Amino acid sequence: MEINISQRLLDVASFVPKESRLLDVGSDHAYLPMHLIKNGWITFAIAGEVVEGPYRSAITNVQQSGLSDQITVHLADGLSAFSEEDRISCITISGMGGRLISDILEAGKGKLSQIERLVLQPNNCEDELRLWLMENHFKIVSEKIMIESGKFYEIIVAEQGQMILSDHQRRFGPFLSQEKSDVFLERWQRDLNKLEVALAKIPLGNETDRFAIKMKINLIKEAIISEG
């Protein structure tokens, strides 16, 4: 069976340590664990899915690929998909809002002590996810920003440890704001353009709303122009 994996998931996969025992939360069609197993990168994975339809799809895909001995598919909510006996060392969560990812981690944080790495790909609210990590003894060790089908995605890689992030780092990413890749600049320039259009539409008398947008504009300009 051919695995129709997106570039976004390939980028997520690139941060999974070799020989990890993986839990992929919200695995959908189980493409990510199937890709990693088929390429010999890992030997065991749990594909966790809370929705019946994708759960059934994942089971079918895993069976048709002949990977049932190496990938277990569980109908489960978040981190309840694994137990201590599974010896999971890496968790991937992709394609959800940053707030939902934070809620999933919060609900299962009693099971995170054995986890060596989190590979997280939030669709929004990246700042809230970084704050959760900071407050729950995880440190960001790498980040990537990419674009696919006209939408920007950030990948946040965290491991056990302590970190202190400034407001600027929480919003723009401690690594992303330092590297200032072309994709990073394009993403924030696009947001800047939208805010400037919005500002032009706000009546001059509405100082409260104008001030709030001006603050956002200034923060983005600082992120784009400053030296990290």
Report on this model:
By secondary structure, this protein is of the alpha/beta class. The protein is 43% helix and 22% strand. It is built from 9 helices and 7 strands; from the N terminus they run H-E-H-E-H-E-E-H-E-H-E-E-H-H-H-H. It has helices spanning 7-13, 31-38, 52-64, 98-107, 126-135, 167-172, 176-179, 182-201, 207-225; strands at 21-25, 44-49, 71-75, 90-96, 117-122, 138-148, 151-160. Helix 4 (98-107) packs parallel to helix 5 (126-135). The longest helix has 20 residues, at 182-201. 36% of the residues are buried. The mean pLDDT is 95.
Q: Layout of SSEs?
A:
Layout: H1 7-13, E1 21-25, H2 31-38, E2 44-49, H3 52-64, E3 71-75, E4 90-96, H4 98-107, E5 117-122, H5 126-135, E6 138-148, E7 151-160, H6 167-172, H7 176-179, H8 182-201, H9 207-225
Parallel strand pairs: 1-2, 1-4, 2-3, 4-5
Antiparallel strand pairs: 5-7, 6-7
Task: Please give a quick description of this structure.
The chain has about 230 residues and is α/β, with parallel strands linked by helices.
Features:
elongated; seven-stranded mixed β-sheet; 228 residues; alpha/beta
Order of helices and strands: HEHEHEEHEHEEHHHH
Number of helices: 9
Total number of strands: 7
- Describe the biggest sheet? 7 strands, mixed
C-alpha Rg (nearest Å):
19 Å
The proportion of strand residues reads 15-25%
Proportion of residues in helical segments: 40-55%
Low-confidence stretches: none
Distance between the termini: 45 Å
Shape: elongated
Mean pLDDT: 95
What order do the strands of the largest sheet run in, or round the barrel if closed? 3-2-1-4-5-7-6
How does the helix and strand content classify structurally?
alpha/beta
